[in-house]
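Table S2 (text version). Query chain:
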Amino acid sequence: METKKSILPFIALLAVVVLAFFFPSLPDDAEVAIDGSDVAWMLTSTALVLIMTPGLAFFYGGMVKKKNVISTMLQSFICMAVVAVIWVVFGFSLVFGESIGGIIGNPATYFMFEGVVGGPNWPGAPTIPFALFAMYQLKFAIITPALITGAFAERIRFKSYVLFLILFFVFIYAPLAHATWHPDGLLAGIGVLDFAGGTVVHMSAGVTALASALYLKRGNGSSGSNPARITYVMLGTGLLWFGWFGFNAGSAFGANGLAASALATTSTASGAAALAWIFFDAARGKKPTAIGVCIGVVVGLVAITPAAGFVTVSHSLIIGVVAAIISRLVVEWRTHSRVDDTLDVFPSHGVGGMVGMILTGVFATHTINGAVTTDGLFFGQTGLFMAHLLGLVGAVVFTFIMAFVLLKATDLVSKLRVSVEEEEEGLDITQHGESL
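Corresponding structure-token output:
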């Protein structure tokens, strides 16, 4: 099959190289205070979060057919390259730059990383270099679009996917991250708490996955019905589980008691969710499966993410079990519907993130984290819970509508779906000329 030349992406990359000559991003001379132990922990956490993306590649790659393993895994890997470049040019500015209406950051604030290396420490991370804070946040931005790929695995063109992930970052991830994590952000202003990305990462990816599945419609074959390697899924789960401790405990931005608490709640919720998934299946006469355990672990990790540094360890057990049962029921519904979310991204990440966000509003307490100014519903206060309900509705509606717009825009520029013949032959060969 002849491949058409595509010169525009190469020209865009060369343009970035030219910009680098004019914006050298030399370190500032500002005197900043750092804590060596905090820096060491955050360097470690940054690496831990990055390894989650290859972990996700194995997790998804093991679930698809053998002829689509490479293409599925590459869709995760490419995010580490694409988002890293965007982040330096203007992406970090969109998320953490000077706020424009609480919705988005000014793209000129840290353009080409000007003022980042050697700059004043971020207020929420006062003991680590600003550049380290920026690199840690980059890893969250990398994995978020990668999570979406499970919804349209085995049926999307690679170049169209790359365009879509860029649009997703600019128009969905960046606004949600800014609104939630910037001090002047819209959601932060109404009191929404998201310790490590339940709303920013998992809900945005999960809801976009649902929109993608609906837009692309069903695959022409039995997508995902013959997993290529369940052992890949287990390996991927192990890497995700391992990296998630940097994801959640690292969000304390220091080697401190809050990080230890977040690590504990993360471990407990994920274990409880794995057991809940297979025990719930057993109660309905189903065999315990390796994939069931793996998905249960991930759902528990997703659900505890927004709450990790705000709730007690015992309450994390509740969050893990509740999220697993609800997500399992949504998977059951999805299986019998016409929604072809190939690898159940919406039930796992979308629904898991929603449950986590709601239960953060129930169980968050200032005794764990002083940033909680209003305790959750469990402690008799309603303010935080209502803020989370409002934030959830707003985030879901915004993400779903915007995702449809971006999918349509991408489809107009570069057709999203592969042909029936390409789908039958497999994306590894048709998109990349490679095979296992």
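Notes on Table S2: The longest helix spans residues 383-413. The mean pLDDT is 95.
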